[in-house]
Amino acid sequence: MANQLLSTVSYRDSLPEGYARPEHDRPRLADVRTDTNIPLIDLASPDRHRVIAEIDQACRTYGFFQVINHGISEELLEKVMAVGLEFFRLPPEEKAKLYSDEPSKKIRLSTSFNVRKETVHNWRDYLRLHCHPLEEFVPDWPSNPETFKEIISVYCREVRLLGLRLLGAISLGLGLEEVYVEKVLGEQEQHMAVNYYPRCPEPDLTYGLPKHTDPNALTILLMDPHVSGLQVLRDGAKWIAVDPRPNALVINLGDQLQALSNGAYKSVWHRAVVNEAHERLSVASFLCPCNSAVIGPAPKLVGDGEDPVYRSYTYDEYYKRFWSRNLDQEHCLELFRSQH
Ligand code: OGA
Ligand code: NI
């Protein structure tokens, strides 16, 4: 129901019912540190081999990195953030028209993660769009704000090019042909989540998004330049904050690249936390294999006489499995390990 949207009401004193996590499952915000060594990769560096090696290293260790000089202009990034915020500030009746909690819909405004399945809600509203091919989906996108379609279309096009460039570099870093990953993933879908995290009266008790890995191949995240919220799990144990950096984009690997790399690359656990003083916006672009793509470890990456770590499956099978679970259960890829 549209009246579950957080962005239509202001909660000043305490969390409404259904948002507080049990004691053992709270973000412990005071224990989280900022990691200043998060890989930062300059994509305009003339030394291409070095860029590929840096991406490879980041994918093996952190599973995510930030890129600068990525080719998307500062002006466009600012416009995307501004129009995103403007959207969430629309009057409730305008937003209610787009509300849906049916995950298969190709455009919808929703809240939390999967309100039909979850028992505790998350402090997030989100607008989810399919973005490729643009001509097919843009007509159904919001026409209010007036500039939304135009700005987001241009951004989607540029993000896709960046994503494909990164997949080329990732293939090379794995020692595969440059087009290998792109070929396996097929005609990739592209989805977007415009995430809006309102100010929260009790940020220690809840999440914007609880810990999860992204089920797709590659995620490109544009973050609010002024407000932190993204946290990543390091070494399976320690949450670190990824603070925004001007004009940088955060790249994180999704489950499909972990599978394809036979486990060499990591699809890391990450989460979004909220805060009392500021609302926060992030725009996540997901490159997703086409549904019929058959995904499994690249044969070249499986040692002689060894079994691949994961079995092959279609993305369709994976995606259905992902959405049938709770977000913070075990790593979905664990369900696809080869049987010995
Ligand atoms: C996501 C995500 C993090 C953030 O949308 O999958 O992880 O900081 N977002 O909003
Ligand atoms: Ni994510």
From TrEMBL:
It holds the Pfam family 2OG-FeII_Oxy. It comes from the Eukaryota. Its cofactor is L-ascorbate. Residues 188-289 form the Fe2OG dioxygenase domain. Keywords: Dioxygenase, Iron, Metal-binding, Oxidoreductase. GO terms for biological process: defense response to oomycetes. This is Fe2OG dioxygenase domain-containing protein. The lineage of its organism: Eukaryota, Viridiplantae, Streptophyta, Embryophyta, Tracheophyta.
